Amino acid sequence: MNLIEFPLVDKTITNSVISTTLNDLSNWSRLSSLWPLLYGTSCCFIEFASLIGSRFDFDRYGLVPRSSPRQADLILTAGTVTMKMAPSLVRLYEQMPEPKYVIAMGACTITGGMFSTDSYSTVRGVDKLIPVDVYLPGCPPKPEAVIDAITKLRKKISREIFEDRTVSQQENRCFTTNHKFCVRRSTHTGNYDQELLYQSPSTSEIPSETFFKSKSSVSPHELVNQTRSTFMFLLHEYDIFWAFLIISSVIPILAFVISGVLAPVSEGPEKLSSYESGIEPIGDAWLQFRIRYYMFALVFVVFDVETVFLYPWAMSFDVLGVSVFIEALIFVLIPIVGSVYAWRKGALEWS
């Protein structure tokens, strides 16, 4: 039953047997469940993507967007097609099952658009690569135009004969899997590198004397030297990593000590000047007061450890030494001491 040509059949005739052809039934099922492939290379795809939303709701036409060409039977070529993208587009089209349909969406897809005159890499029309069923002009076409193109495609599908469609698609292929291979002179010389063909014997084939001899071939002194050289290599090769690890381990301890020294030393009320906001830590508030010191100091630690290695003079860390660590520690401790002192004066009171 062709509901495109007879839209009122199911409304006027109820509880009846309707005769139809297998061809019409096949066309009706295909036009009612077109699954488009999500393919977009330019701005036209934004207009197509808006169809997925609730405003235009193209699901009412049975369209279900798919991300795999093997599950799609419709492709909207939305956007510019370049020479590099052309083989991929043809490959996607060939991976779609038969029967399949193509809608050329936008001026760039149909004729090359604004790139048709001076561009050296734009395909002047996607129909030079794959057969097109519906041409949709515009720059870019509105979502309503896309719906109109899909409606016209549905009408075209409703009048198709399945056998003719399959034959025409097989005859009008733009790409075939029967590739022609060029016959070239053989490079086989008969000589092979014996080292590449060497296979080490299994453990069971190795004599026990050879095995224990190889086990004891390295003396303890040589083993210590190898370990030392490996350690020195790691130390010099990853010096920035070790510097970051040491600084990030030392600074929290120093921040903890500095916070404890500058924090109030008694649980009684604290005498404050007139310009200070002040805190009187008593009981549980005393513990919270100390914890806030540590939290605030550690925030500055993380920030300044990153700043040390992003600072321009951090490039001078080619050779690590005591002076480099002292310089880095001073650089990190200055804002920590300043922040804790500002907290101590009440400028950063926890509300």
TrEMBL record:
GO terms for cellular component: chloroplast thylakoid membrane; mitochondrial membrane; respiratory chain complex I. It comes from Musa balbisiana. Keywords: 4Fe-4S, Chloroplast, Iron, Iron-sulfur, Membrane, Metal-binding, NAD, NADP, Plastid, Plastoquinone, Quinone, Thylakoid, Translocase, Transmembrane, Transmembrane helix, Transport. It catalyses: a ubiquinone + NADH + 5 H(+)(in) = a ubiquinol + NAD(+) + 4 H(+)(out); a plastoquinone + NADPH + (n+1) H(+)(in) = a plastoquinol + NADP(+) + n H(+)(out); a plastoquinone + NADH + (n+1) H(+)(in) = a plastoquinol + NAD(+) + n H(+)(out). The chain crosses the membrane at residues 240-263, 293-314, 320-343. This is NADH-ubiquinone oxidoreductase chain 3. Pfam families: Oxidored_q4, Oxidored_q6. InterPro entries: NAD(P)H_OxRDtase_bac/plastid (IPR023043), NADH_UbQ/plastoQ_OxRdtase_su3 (IPR000440), NADH_UbQ_OxRdtase-like_20kDa (IPR006137), NADH_UQ_OxRdtase_20Kd_su (IPR006138), NDAH_ubi_oxred_su3_sf (IPR038430). SUPFAM superfamilies: HydA/Nqo6-like (SSF56770). Belongs to the complex I subunit 3 family. Belongs to the complex I 20 kDa subunit family. One of its GO terms (biological process) is aerobic respiration. It is found in: Mitochondrion membrane; Plastid, Chloroplast thylakoid membrane. It is a multi-pass membrane protein; Peripheral membrane protein.
